[in-house]
Amino acid sequence: SQRWQEYLAYQKEFLLEDGTKGFNFGLKPKTAKTSALIKAKPSFWARFPNLKGKWDGKSTINHWDAAKRVLGDKVEDLIQMQPRGTCGGRGGSATMDFVQCIMLAAGKVNFKFSRTSHAAVYVTARQESGMSFSGDWRDENNDGVGSGSVPEALTKLGVVKRVDDGDEKWYGDGSDDLACQLAVGMHQDIYKKILELGKEHIVTDWAPVHSAAELADGIASGGCAVISDSLGFTMTRDNNGFCRISGQWGHYHCHPGVGVWGGRPGVVYFQSWGKQAPSGPVPEGCPPNCFIVSMDDMDTMISQGDAAVMFAFNPWDVGPAPTPPDLDINIDWANVP
Predict the structure, then answer these.
(1) Cβ proximity of 336 and 222 under 8 Å
(2) How many Å apart are CA 23 and CA 332, to the nearest integer?
(3) How far is Cα 285 from Cα 62, in angstroms, rounded to an integer?
(4) CA dist., res. 158 & res. 152, Å (int)
(5) Which residue has the higher pLDDT, 233 or 132?
(6) SS3 assignment for 34-78
(7) Which residues fall within 8 angstroms of residue 297, CB to CB, at 6 or more apart?
(8) Measured between alpha carbons, how far is residue 257 from residues 23, 66, 215 in Å?
(9) pLDDT higher at 174 or 114
(10) Does residue 320 have a cis peptide bond before it, meaning omega lies within 30 degrees of 0?
């Protein structure tokens, strides 16, 4: 896409040289309203003190395994490619796709998996950010959602299937056109449908996290993390799949796994730029769009961004509860909150 090519050109010119320049994939400043909501909400450890230390620092718990069990050979359909500054919708919808897979793999509820609409997440997060429904949808300077806005938008306004709002009809370089048109007040019929459908499928459980250790415990307890921050990373993975902090990005992203790679602990970074980035060896047990972030770098990221772990939502198409499948996933499902 044009945005990705612009980023690669920027990286070649600036990032590898001194790391002083920045690039924004669709993150706006956090509003006072969002700050107050996050501050008032108990953190994961405060809500679930018995789950502190859930991750043992040695096991690898990667919810990509749950996604493979649920989706089979369709699992790489979860990899997204954003052609514009819509990372809030992309990161939020990827997180909810993983939440669906975790819920289904746990066997506690039986419903039909359906891809989450990134356009719906994007427009509701903008609404939660207090952004106006105006402007030219073709102006990429208008793109983005407020930092920290996605979890609360999903809690208040809910989750919507791509198939229900027509999101799946938009693809390729035009895959974000619906999101950006909704953001300026176009397609009012679709927008009203999103609000009507979403209220039946709200996120029922999420918690802020304030450190890499707290985030790791949340993932190990059956959650998927979503984070907004301004840290950039190198775009070539090392031999174990790690990338290191370099430069600045304004970005929203998904984190479905924690574990140890090459003897080094870290967290999976599930990005929204397609299957070909970053370059270098793919981390063991991960799809090709991922890289690993060290625990120290995760602490830096969380300290200057907004991080949350999502656990559950009111699902659609619910049927009789199935017998829990025999999964080779390192999670104590009985203690998933």
Answers:
(1) yes
(2) 40
(3) 8
(4) 9
(5) 233
(6) HHHHHHHCCCHHHHCHHHCCCCCCCCCEECHHHHHHHHHHHHHHH
(7) 231, 244, 245
(8) 26, 11, 10
(9) 114
(10) no
